[in-house]
Amino acid sequence: MYQYTEFDRQFVHLRAQQFRDQLERWQRGELTDEQLLPLRLQNGWYIQRYAPMARIAVPYGDINSAQLRMLAHIAREYDRPTPELLAHAQATQDQLQAAQPGLTLAAPPLRHGYGHFTTRTNVQFNWIPITRAADVMDLLASVHMHGIQTSGNDIRNITCEAYAGIAEDEIVDTRPFAEITRQWSSLHPEFTYLPRKFKIAFNGAAEDRAATGWYDIGLQALKNAAGEVGFAVKVGGGMGRTPVIGTVVREFLPWDQLLNYIEAIVRVYNSYGRRDNKWKARIKILVKSEGQQFIDAVEAEYRAILEQDGAPHTITQAELDRVTGHFVVPPLRPAGRPHCVNTSGQLYQRWLQQNVRGHRMGGGLKAVTLSFKRVGFAPGDADGDTLDALAQLADQFSAGEARLTHEQNLLLPWVHEADLPALYEAARKLGLAQPNIGLLTDMIACPGGDFCSLANARSLPIAAAITERYQDLDELFDIGPIDLHMSGCINSCGHHHSGHIGILGVDKDGMEWYQITLGGSDGSQLSGPAIGGKVVGPAFSAAEVPDVIEALLGTYRSLRKSGEFFIDTLRRVGQDPFKAAANGARHPKATEEALAE
Questions:
Q1: At 20, is the secondary structure helix, strand, or coil?
Q2: Residues 39, 37: Cα–Cα separation, whole Å
Q3: 131: buried, middle or exposed (CB in 10 Å: 19+, 13-18, 0-12)?
Q4: Are strands 114-117 and 122-125 parallel, antiparallel or unpaired?
Q5: Read out DSSP for 373-388?
Q6: CA 370, 373, 379, 381 torsion-angle sign
Q7: Which of 43, 60, 375, 532 has minimal CB crowding within 10 Å?
Q8: 3-state secondary structure of 110
């Protein structure tokens, strides 16, 4: 992972000091709430449904054991609501739960002392008092972490696919390019107050595992006929109220022009993006409405940057080499840790099949994903003790390094094949060895209405109900690979648009209802080109959703051909039989009761 320079260290420490000064001035009444708002947002501090939420950046997902231990410390010591606040929040959630007719499975309790892994490789805390925010920022800076630009109308945390640098199908390791972009965009004065938030993703492998088609800018690494490295540039992807797949505006951009071209894109967006309507302010709206005129404007701006400005941000080979040199393979400990695992047992073999992947470097190295999709826990949640245990696993089995993934799991990138049984044994004791990566219960879900002030409905009770229902591994493996994504509101933080099955929480007269979409794709090899799912019909009550999922899967199993996955069958036969099955799973009594409330 990237090794900080002295400049990097000073940068995050000074930013933490600046934020402390801003908070102290606010506490003294020298800054109003309105004046503090953009300042705290650009450091990752929100005010959510019950308490502040802190969003911590993990650029391109790379994290080390010291950082995991610091997150564990913050979870235990700072993510602590007052008893009165927690009781009030739980009582409110209990009322919501009681109002959902027929949903007998309770949601996970509103725990505190947890970090939450997000789809964009951030870590969120839900209960840290704003008065302690500066102390938390200082602690983060001590281990080279921060919340800079994890919120606000600016260029957000830069992401890459989780296997960058280790993927067997890798074209180029995009992390150095992501780091150069991160450094360039951090506190960029021209792009501090964009019309809306702005997200960039890199993918450096043959398979798009970074969902680049769904980003404001998606960058796919490739090589031309001469073997030169460049990027295909997609612009204008995004979810939310208007799901749009990014438009390819450049088939091949030489790598050294990366920043100049991104600057041209963001300048055009900054100039012409709408600021009169929050819901129409994303760059996807500008690209969709202007079409070729947008591309022409970007190309004109790019030429001006090259010719008039002198291409100020051309990346030199020396600069690329310098940054690449900060991504070093860590010293690997000898393999051969003792274990008592039956390596021929079915559970272990299934874990090898689902959770372990090959490694670009060979030499007996493997990449192992630990599953954070467990009964009784929200997807992506890890308490302080678990974060400490993860740090220990990283030290013991992965040279002190780990990766957060788009799917809200944690990956160990430097595991010796000989140590897989010992790692499995240790992960199993922590409840993190579920062999479900890529299967139904490896779902993506946002925190929803349990925490988020923007949500229309809760995601976590539905996730809990589905997870509880599908604990039979034989059934999970029979169903096969499937992407289930769930969002608590139209902002789509749970990426429901790109799920083979998507679930969207909506509000109807104060009640929680859920739309079901089918056929979405994130652009991966399994899913095919990125595409948004289609709604199957009117929304379902909370009680109906698990039965709807069961009906959809039953339809798939009755119609599939040998070797077909869910998404293959859906595309072959069309959506009509699946829609009929979903609508046939409605509960007339539950729907009647809900409408009568």
A1: helix
A2: 5
A3: exposed
A4: antiparallel
A5: --TTS-TTEEEHHHHH
A6: negative
A7: 375
A8: coil
